[in-house]
Amino acid sequence: MGKKYKVLAFTAIRSEYDLLSDLYKLLNNDNNIEFKLIVSGAHLSSTYGFTIQEIEKDGLSILARIETLIDSNSKVKRPKSASILFQSALDIVSQYQPDLILYAGDREEVIIASLIGGYLEIPTIHFYGGDHVKDSHIDNPVRHATSKLSTFHFVSTEEHKKRLICMGEKEERIFNIGSIALDKFVSFVPIKKDKLKEVFNVGHFDKFALVIFHPIPKEREKSAKVFENILLSLKENNINAFVSYPNIDPGSDKIIEIINKYENDKNFKFYKNLPRELFLSIYKNAEFIIGNSSSGILESASVPIPAINVGYRQTGRTANENVVYVNTDLSSINNAIKNVISKEFKNKIRYIKNIYGDGNSAQKAFNIIKNLLDKKDYLQNMIFKDEDPLELCYEK
Known about the structure:
Layout: E1 5-11, H1 14-28, E2 33-40, H2 52-57, E3 61-66, H3 77-96, E4 100-104, H4 108-119, E5 124-127, H5 139-149, E6 152-155, H6 158-166, E7 174-176, H7 181-187, H8 193-200, E8 208-212, H9 223-236, E9 240-244, H10 252-262, E10 268-271, H11 276-285, E11 289-291, H12 294-298, E12 307-310, E13 323-326, H13 330-340, H14 343-349, H15 361-373, H16 376-382, H17 389-395
Parallel strand pairs: 1-2, 1-4, 2-3, 4-5, 5-6, 6-7, 8-9, 8-11, 9-10, 11-12, 12-13
């Protein structure tokens, strides 16, 4: 018997793919669902690890590969990439005619997916809406704009749900499932530290940190210096580190120059992309995570390990007790490292409960999606958003 429902997801970068990969596998394994992906962006770039291979390894079906990544460091590259995706994906989605479109996060690909769903009158689900960051990055308003264009919202916290209601979204559109990204953090059994050291040939890495740092517009001119301050602080405190390459945002080239400067330093192991089992094993064996990745805010508490957020990125986001926000100067970073490696700090966070979820979010999302798909008329009616934000505001 043929597949009953068609579900399509958009993905453009490894970090965003990993947010929903557990859900994708559940959908893919259901006999009544034909699940496919449109893959674009950094997934198709050798510079960023050609991570489409991870999707293929997971056994997921790819509807289309769309080359969108522009190799430049200018401000126009992301909107140009978005326009390529919009132009290229429209006919593909129109011809495929999915029953539901999924996308996650706050990068340009999600607003394109939401526009396509809206104009083609296909129901959509936006994951991780309602979050808010005060770092002035374009991703924040993109996230909110995408929410306004989406049919349904699968959010991580009650705060996020309330924010969407304040933006004029009906409560019946919003489902608080927690963060699916936490599922693998809770369930994954890491490779032992000795085996990790052997795999990476870093026998001296008895204790190590995980560094993930990306440029943002507000700090772009000094991002490379901030990144180098993190490396210098780690060296000063005799802490080795696995260090990620930055994302594709403007300013990443200067950070890569610093990586090249330290690439032979025995204190650091730099990587562009890692298989999921190796990355999660590093994460769960690390003394702490440092940089400005959302992972430090959202996921580190599920290990738990301390998270040092350096600079302006991620400020304003609700955080767990394990997160320490610090300035970008060498002294502030040094003091933060000394704080989080102390016995007192480790004892304080040992039993914290992650406010972003319990590790069972993929199954919750899957069950809701199945229920929605069985309500064809309801799905179609919900596409048309006639609610007035002013009326909803006064109702509350």
